Amino acid sequence: MKRFLPLVFVLLCFTTMLQAQINQDCKNTCTIDKIVYETAFLGVQFGSPCNKESDSDKGVVILKVIEGTAAADNKLQPYDLVVAIDDLEVNRRGDAMNAVKAYQPFDTVRFTILRSGKTLLKTITLGAKTSKVIQEVVCCDEAISSLSKENISLYPNPAVSALNIAFKEVIQGDYNFAVYMTNGVLVKQYNKRFVKGDLNENINVDKLEDGVYVLKITKDDSTYSNLFVVKRN
Q1: According to the model, what pLDDT value does residue 25 have?
Q2: C-alpha distances in angstroms, 157 versus 60, 153, 198?
Q3: Residue ranges in the chain modelled with pLDDT below 70
Q4: What pLDDT score does 5 carry?
Q5: 61 partner at 20 to 30 Å CA-CA among 29, 83, 105, 219?
């Protein structure tokens, strides 16, 4: 074991020197807050076959829907039967749980639901079971833009009462949020300063009529725009 200690020390020294060289080469450095999401999460408790109200072999029953999750936002209900997740048929509790876990947080997944004899298709953006925030000091010139579709997730979409904006990485500073109708009419606008650990923003949309809207986020000379839908039925 002792013979490996000098090698570890050399590697640590090399890493420190490399980071110092990177910082020297940067004209400016930025502190980026980065959120790491772990384990895709739907927000339901699946039941076993004996929990079903019918004798059908199809599907996996939902026993409980957890408030504030993707399942609740998309109005899944107790005793809904999940019969397929994307193109995968599920008939056992373990199959449904493993199918959800196979996705990444904020993946969009199609669920086929049986409810009161009717088949429903629900397209749901999954949440995350756990998350943590880390910080990195990087060259501003090489930093991933905070305002890019690769860096921002909108959910739920369609939104019912609130639209959540989740950033993977954020450069601290002042941001402007604006919501437009597709004909260009501004319906909501405000400014917010992002400080350490700010990686999410919620926009209340419960007063907006059902329809398609444009979200625009601006910081300095950078702009992000994307469509989202408000739908309550």
Answers
A1: 66
A2: 25, 10, 21
A3: 1-25, 31, 33-35, 49-56, 140-145
A4: 43
A5: 105
Q: Provide the CATH topology of domain 142-230.
A: Immunoglobulin-like (2.60.40)
- For residue 142, give Cα distances in angstroms to 32, 102, 145, 152, 195: 12, 32, 9, 18, 21
Pair 126, 107: CB distance under 8 Å: yes
- Best CATH choice for the domain 38-127 from the list 3.30.750.24, 3.50.50.60, 2.30.42.10, 3.40.50.12780: 2.30.42.10
Distance CA 76, CA 79 (A): 9
Average pLDDT in the chain: 82
Model confidence, pTM: 0.50
Residue 185 burial (C-beta neighbours within 10 Å; 0-12, 13-18, 19+): exposed
